[in-house]
TrEMBL record:
All copies of domain ABC transporter, residue ranges: 7-232
Membrane-spanning intervals of the chain: none
Organism for this UniProt entry: Rhizomicrobium palustre
GO cellular component terms, semicolon-separated: membrane protein complex; plasma membrane
InterPro entries in the cross-refs: AAA+_ATPase, ABC_transporter-like_ATP-bd, ABC_transporter-like_CS, ABC_transpr_LolD-like, MacB-like_ATP-bd, P-loop_NTPase
Protein name (record): Putative ABC transport system ATP-binding protein
Keywords: ATP-binding, Cell inner membrane, Cell membrane, Membrane, Nucleotide-binding, Transport
Family to which this protein belongs: Belongs to the ABC transporter superfamily. Macrolide exporter (TC 3.A.1.122) family.
Lineage: Bacteria, Pseudomonadati, Pseudomonadota, Alphaproteobacteria, Micropepsales
C-alpha cells in the first residue's frame, strides 16, 4: 500500500448469496485512494458503490481479496478489533441523515464522543466548536424534526467530524436535498474536509457533487472502468 493512500483495494471480490443465487457485486477491484481528498465512487444503480463503501467502512468483509484502510488490513481483523477501529477512524453520512430523533442536535453530535470514552469537558468543547463550524450554534437544542433537511445534514456532518476520524464515508449525501441546499452542503463538506485534513469518500449519482471531486473512480458491474484525478464533467 502506497504510504499516502487511505484505502487500498487488491483483487476485491464481493459475492452475496441471494436465496441460493450468487450475486457478484464486486468483481476484482484494485485501486488506491489517496489520503485527504474529496474522492468520489461513481456508477449506475447496482454497480457496487454501496457494497464498496460498506467494505471500506468495515461494515462488511470482502469474499476474497485484500482491503487496507488507514494502513490496517481490515479484511483480516477480528470482530472486536474491527468495531474499535471503526469507532475511532471511520464516520458515515447518509442520504436520510440517520439522526437520533429523540436527541437534540447537540446530543447527536456529542454521541460518537461518548462511544470513544472522551471526558465530559472535552466532549463539550468539541461538540460546541463543531456545531459552530457547521453554522448551527443557535440550533443546538433543537431535535431533528425541528430542523430543515439542510440543517439535519449539517448535524450529520458535525457528528461525522467531531471525533476527528481518518475517513468520512458518504452514501448519496445530497439525494434528499434540493439542488441549492445540496450545493451548500457540498461546499460545507469541502470546506470541512480541507480544514480537518480528513479523507472524504462519496458514492453518488449527483452531477453537482461529482463536479467537486478531486479523485473519481467510475465503476460498472463491480469493476473499475476508469480513475480520473479531478472531476468528471
Ligand atoms: N445484501 C445483499 N444481498 C444480495 N444482493 C445484494 C445485497 N446488497 C447488494 N446486492 C446486489 O449487489 C449489487 C450491487 O449493489 P450495490 O447496492 O452495491 O449497488 P449501488 O451501486 O450502490 O446501487 P444504487 O446506486 O442503486 O444504490 C446489486 O446487484 C445488488 O442487487
Amino acid at each position: 500500500m502506497a504510504e499516502e493512500s487511505v484505502v487500498s483495494l487488491r483483487d476485491v471480490v464481493k459475492t452475496y448469496d441471494d436465496e441460493g443465487l450468487s450475486v457478484h457485486a464486486l468483481n476484482g477491484l484494485s485501486f488506491d485512494i489517496p489520503k485527504r481528498r474529496f474522492a468520489m465512487i461513481v456508477g449506475p444503480s447496482g454497480s457496487g458503490k454501496t457494497t464498496l463503501l460498506n467494505l471500506i467502512g468495515c461494515i462488511d468483509k470482502p469474499t476474497t481479496g485484500a482491503i487496507h484502510v488507514a494502513g490496517e488490513d481490515v479484511g483480516k481483523m477480528g470482530d472486536t478489533k474491527v468495531t474499535d477501529f471503526r469507532a475511532k477512524n471511520i464516520a458515515f453520512i447518509f442520504q436520510n441523515f440517520s439522526l437520533f430523533p429523540v436527541l437534540s442536535a447537540y446530543e447527536n453530535v456529542e454521541y460518537p464522543l461518548l462511544l470513544i470514552g472522551m471526558s465530559a469537558k472535552e466532549r463539550r468543547e468539541r461538540t460546541l466548536s463543531m456545531l459552530e463550524a457547521v453554522g448551527l450554534a443557535d440550533q443546538a437544542r433543537q431535535r431533528p424534526n425541528q430542523l430543515s433537511g439542510g440543517q439535519k445534514q449539517r448535524v450529520a456532518i458535525a457528528r461525522a467530524l467531531v471525533k476527528h476520524p481518518e475517513i468520512v464515508l458518504a452514501d448519496e449525501p445530497t439525494a434528499n436535498l434540493d439542488s441549492e441546499t445540496g450545493l451548500q452542503i457540498i461546499e460545507l463538506m469541502h470546506k470541512m474536509q480541507h480544514e480537518q485534513a480528513v479523507s472524504f469518500i462519496f458514492a453518488s449519482h449527483d452531477p453537482q457533487l461529482i463536479s467537486h471531486a478531486e479523485e473519481t473512480y467510475i465503476i460498472r458491474d463491480g469493476k473499475l472502468l476508469e480513475h480520473r484525478s479531478g472531476a468528471v464533467q
